[in-house]
Amino acid sequence: MKYIRARAPGKCILFGEHSVVYGYPAIAMGITLGSVCEIEALNNNKITIFLESYNKNLVFSNIDDLIVHFPPEFKQFSYCLKRFKENYTIDFNNIRITLSSTPLLSSSGLGSSASSAVALVSAINSFYNIQLNRRQISHFALDMEKLVHGTPSGIDNTVCTYGSIIFYEQGEFRFIETPNNLNLLVTYTNIKHDTGKAIEKFREFTKQNPDYSDQLLSEMGMIAREAEHELINLNIEKIGVLMNKNQKLLEIFGISNENISEIIDIALNNGAFGSKITGAGLGGSVISVGSPSKLEHVAKSLENEGYYSFHTGINRQGVRVESN
Length: 324
Ligand code: PMV
Prior knowledge:
This protein is of the alpha+beta class and about 325 residues long. Helix content is about 45%, strand content about 25%.
């Protein structure tokens, strides 16, 4: 039986979350954890979608039934299938799709929604031999992301498609080549975040303080530009200093909280060079950089305070597809 598996990396935003929504540059990295989408042919005259991360098994008699009855909280997935149906006359009959982004933890700022969108589009693309290229896959995933939170900058879908470290500005991007891997410690704040809410809170601050916000946003942009050079030389100490600066600016917009501050304090007090929110904030995850032995020590200290961390590095391949 025909079978396809697509894997797309998750991501960490290293610099410039939020300011990227306002057109300033940002830097993101594809990480080793990610999402997987499997499609297998079956002979049961049904369409089965198993959303593993939500433990939801959905069975439909045909694509029209799916379009009408798909749970609205996952509308980005039914939109995806509907668009393939309309543009490429695919009926999706006799297949089972399994989508999982479990290792990324949902609403944790690690790109679970962009990564699963990219994996799903890529898997369908290969299974039905549609031949969308990476750019088209990334744009397709961006349209799905728009249904999840209204005004995505496009950085998440781009890095989850291409992997590596990217410098992203207003829809355009370039790769940043580092001489070695960049080791990150990712710590979960124990708080699920809501990207839309965090974007709204950030926007509220910009409305209340327009001139001050312009100045802060442009500082964030300059930090991202400076960080590109430090990443090219993989100067971890300077990268850490810039992360701390970026964090201080994000805090002014009110998207930090107690858990985030506690994690950052523990990281810096235990020898990390830098530590900051990654993604929308108000929860989600925090990233830290430092020497491998210090990061090990930071992780242990955080664990003692009830925070789960994991080490990750660069996924250089981006989305890839395997078949049987
Ligand atoms: O998807 P999250 O929660 O990791 O955050 C996305 C980053 C933002 O800059 C806040 C939004 C965006 O679309 O770039």
